[in-house]
Amino acid sequence: MKNILLLICVILILNSCSEDLEIINSKIYGKWVTIEIEEKDGSKIEGPLTGYGIFGAYSESIQLNTDNTFVPLMQIDADNFVSSTSEAGTFLYQSQFLELNGGAWDMDFNVVKLNDADMWLKTSERTYKLNRVE
After folding, report:
1. Domain assignment present for 6
2. Does 3 score more than 50 pLDDT?
3. Structural domain contains residue 38
4. Cβ atoms of residues 107 and 121 within 8 Å
5. Which CATH number do you get for residue 55?
6. Does pLDDT of 16 surpass 60?
7. What was the pLDDT predicted at 78?
8. How would you write the chain as a 3-class SS string?
9. pLDDT > 90: percent of the chain
10. CA 106, CA 65: separation in Å to the nearest integer?
């Protein structure tokens, strides 16, 4: 009887962890605009960063879709973006690591911060601070 109760507890815990992971992973999806870049030496480049090529040739912003595809975006103004579909690709997000493949260039980031409003992506050279937009 103890073994059955222990097994049920383990299953419930694993199920709870899986649901928490799905909630965390779902925060990555959406439209993100880079608002600041911090260089390795501590210097900062503050937005707006329109046309600053991060995710594509002229794309400082990115749309991460639920089917694990991404589209680089260039922000024209607060409400308007130009999609760079020719530089689109796929992404993998797991364990605080974001990998972009098949776009203008492949990129790997450590996800330093991720919540409903902010995402900070770090490379060996700089940190990109992004805000979610609707």
Report:
1. no
2. yes
3. yes
4. no
5. 2.40.128.280
6. no
7. 84
8. CHHHHHHHHHHHHHHHHHHHHHHHHHCCCEEEEEEEEEECCCCEEECCCCCCCCCECCECEEEECCCCEEEEEEEEECCEEEECHHHCEEEEEECCEEEEECCCCCEEEEEEEECCCEEEEECCCEEEEEEEEC
9. 70
10. 17
The pairing of strands 69-77 and 89-94 is: antiparallel
Nearest to 37 by CA among 95, 121, 115, 113: 121
Apex CA 56: angle with CA 52 and CA 57, to 5°? 65
Percent of the chain with pLDDT over 70: 81
Higher pLDDT among residues 32 and 6, named by residue: 32
Beta bridge mates, 119: 114, 130
Q: Which two tokens stand for residue 111?
A: 């996800």
Radius of gyration, CA atoms only, the chain: 18
Amino acid symbol at 68? N
Our count of domains for the chain comes to 1
The residue segments making up the domain with residue 79 are 29-133
Answer yes or no: pTM beyond 0.85.
Answer: no
What pLDDT sits at residue 112?
A: 96
